[in-house]
Amino acid sequence: MKDKDITDTIYRLFRALKRQKRQGGKRPPFSRSSYRIMVILKEEESMRMGELAKRLDIRPASLSPQLKQMEAAGLIKRQRDENDLRVIRLTLDQEGEKVLDQVRGQRERRSKEINAWLTPEEREEFLAVSEKLIAAFESNQKGQEGGRHES
Q1: What sign results for the dihedral spanned by CA atoms 133, 106, 37, 39?
Q2: What does the pLDDT look like over 29-74, one tens digit per residue?
Q3: 26-93 is classed in which CATH architecture?
């Protein structure tokens, strides 16, 4: 196989996925990060904002505006902790659960379609290479944040 530019291939894959997503119909009424928040809140049932920010690996100040938008859209709600009224806990609202279930169904259908295009061996190989690249990118990012650059 002729040498190809890996970065170009990755970008082409992202563009193809975006095009397919657009052709797939109605877009969800929230961002990918909002989806992640709803998945976590569904798993945990309720969380403090600081716990959620830590799980998402972002600063609470960065999370706050997004939570306000999600609350205004009826996807999540804030409630005082019964045991400690100073603590505010985040939970997934009924509308959030409904929307999350719809999006999960769409993602599951898309995943089945993509899986059908690859053999089991190709899927395993793709996942292994992807995880290796993700780990390398994350390691490199942490190195740069620490003031050093790993080559």
Answers
A1: negative
A2: 678 889 999 999 999 989 999 999 999 988 989 999 999 999 999 9
A3: Orthogonal Bundle (1.10)
